[in-house]
Amino acid sequence: MMQHFVSKASRRVLCVVRALNGNASCSSMATRHYFRVVPTLQRDFDKTPVPRNFFKWGSQEFCRSFSFVTGFAPLKEKPLDTILDVEMAKTKSPEELADIWDDFHLGRGHIGISMKAKLYHLMEQRASDCRYFVIPVWKGNGHTTMFVQVEMPHMLFTGLEDYRARGTQAAPYMTASYYKEFAESKDLVLVRGDIVFTSKLSDEEAKWLLEAAQSFYVNDVKYKLVERFNKQTREFELKDVLQALEMPIL
């Protein structure tokens, strides 16, 4: 039963981007549109085009879109000094600062976590080569698959089914920003996740999703699945991600 369930889920994932396979003009158009919608990210996405094999998932009408933030208010990076007292933070140890950051975000519809600067730089390096991934989030008796786009120092998460159904009208469920102000002095990068749709993700689910996404980029074994998704898409199976996450098997 579980094998059938995973197979069906894998087919849903695989059908999402097949339309864009081999269509370089569509890829370029969509990525340019993405950064008109989210100008504050200020990234030259066309310099690193989406891998050809990635676009084998989907139907032809899906080629009209590769941006999932159209119609959504542009992301505005919130300066760190508007979130916490930076001067006070300088007097704290890395452990104290991490605890303060985490505690501040509890129950606010935001997620606060932190990571070592070395791991952040590894993630940044790997994300420049492999920008996309999918992560199932367990809900009830099954899972909802999230589509992840990494453009450091930001990550965007949206529902894969919403992306498939709404194309350019799909909006992020959650955004994440990375603050590197203390990377050198404290070997610490602060991470803030903002839940856009609380009806789609609870605080607990959002935190789990953000940490899971990071783990696939900083763990050598898990990162092979990210590479496969971006570079060897025909060999990618969602069941491998489920196994890596040790999701419950019915």
Verbal overview:
- It is built from ten helices and six strands; from the N terminus they run H-H-H-H-E-H-E-E-E-H-E-H-E-H-H-H.
- The protein starts with a helix and ends in a 5-residue tail after the last helix.
- The protein has one domain.
- The protein is an alpha+beta fold and 250 residues long.
- It has a six-stranded antiparallel β-sheet, with helices on both faces.
- The N terminus is likely disordered.
- A hairpin with a 2-residue loop joins strand 3 and strand 4.
Overall number of structural domains: 1
Estimate percent helicity.
40-55%
Number of helices in the DSSP assignment? 10
The total beta strand count reads 6
Task: Report the order of strands and helices.
Answer: HHHHEHEEEHEHEHHH
**Strand order across the largest sheet:** 1-6-5-4-3-2
Uncertain segments are 1-8, 15-74
